[in-house]
Design a protein that fits this description.
15 helices; mainly alpha; MetI-like fold
Length: 331
């Protein structure tokens, strides 16, 4: 059997090389370096502008505190001569001594004081009494009311809640005259109870704030407590209140700060010196000018001391306050 002869295989001809072929293109998605750098440049500029705005806002916020500090450590005579100087014109502790009662009237006048008197410790005690009692009582009863709105079912609950929410939109100045007439008719003028009573009974924000948090607590926890024989009161104090310690503490801080800074209502119903709070006392001290001009150094020293507890409280608890408000607002 014969084998057919093999045919020679010729190689395929190579394609001619054309020098005019276009160069290979870049992969899709690649950009040149100048275009790629523009977004980064815009991002840097945006961050610089944001930081500049934040720093400027911080300076504008802290400058009044610095100005009070600078004024409190200056003498009144030096303040009159160098009112535009950013640094203490003449370092002096006279204002602090006059406020804290460490200087006699003769020493105060010799140091450039106005001759006005300020029983700082009495007014500080009154402010602490009013703020503490108001905070404790309001927080306690608002927590109970908020739990009733969140969990209990009773006739008129939704209508009452609507009235409370509507009260949030009423400016407080509109209720000042009716409240004053009520306090006067009850014979509570120039008393601590007269100063505190409207704040104890009119707290729609506090009820709404805690109600929003209570709605987010799982009902299974309360149902388990009721299976063990607990009533509504025991369930609230042993289950709900411990879980809600953060928002309750936040509400207490906000109430304390608001009560401490209250000025108009204590001025209206607490004209007696025995119940005068610190904010009103500072206004009276400002208006006393036996020497023709206010004691600016003493006034700024007293203002700093009165603001110091609130500044420390908010610096320590400010983050918790903001987080609790945001959490309750999302419920």
């Amino acid at each position: 059997m014969s084998v057919p002869p093999t045919l020679p295989i010729e190689p395929a001809p190579l394609a001619p090389v054309n020098d005019t072929d276009p160069a290979p293109t870049k992969p899709i998605g690649t950009v040149s370096s100048p275009v790629r750098g523009r977004p980064r440049l815009r991002g840097r500029i945006g961050r610089v502008l944001a930081w500049a705005f934040l720093i400027a806002s911080l300076v504008l916020t802290l400058f009044p505190f610095y100005w009070m500090l600078r004024t409190s450590f200056s003498s009144n005579a030096a303040l009159a001569a160098n009112s535009g100087n950013l640094l203490p014109a003449e370092f002096s502790l006279g204002g602090w001594k006059r406020v804290l009662g460490l200087a006699t009237p003769e020493e105060a006048l010799a140091d450039g004081g106005s001759g006005a008197s300020l029983d700082f410790w009495l007014y500080l005690r009154n402010s602490i009494i009013v703020a503490t009692i108001t905070t404790v009582v309001q927080t306690f009863f608002c927590a109970l009311a908020a739990y009733a709105f969140a969990r209990l079912r009773w006739p008129g609950r939704d209508a009452m809640l609507f009235l409370f929410l509507t009260a949030l939109m009423i400016p407080p100045i509109f209720t000042t005259l009716p409240n004053f007439i009520l306090i006067r008719d009850l014979g509570l003028l120039n008393t601590f109870l007269g100063i505190m009573l409207p704040s104890l009974l009119m707290a729609p924000f506090s009820i709404f704030f805690l109600r929003q948090f209570f709605l987010g607590i799982p009902k299974e926890l309360e149902e388990a407590a009721r299976l063990d024989g607990a009533g509504y009161a025991r369930t609230f104090f042993q289950v709900v209140a411990p879980i809600s310690s953060a928002p309750i503490m936040t509400l207490a801080i906000l109430t304390y700060i608001g009560t401490w800074n209250e000025y108009f209502w204590p001025l209206l119903v607490g004209r007696s010196e025995e119940v005068r709070v610190l904010t009103v006392a500072l206004g009276v001290f400002r208006s006393q000018t036996p020497q023709g001009s206010p004691d600016w150094a003493g006034l700024m020293a007293a203002t700093l001391i009165s603001a110091l507890p609130i500044i420390i409280l908010f610096a320590l608890m400010g983050k918790r306050v903001i987080n609790s408000i945001g959490f309750s607002g999302l419920k």
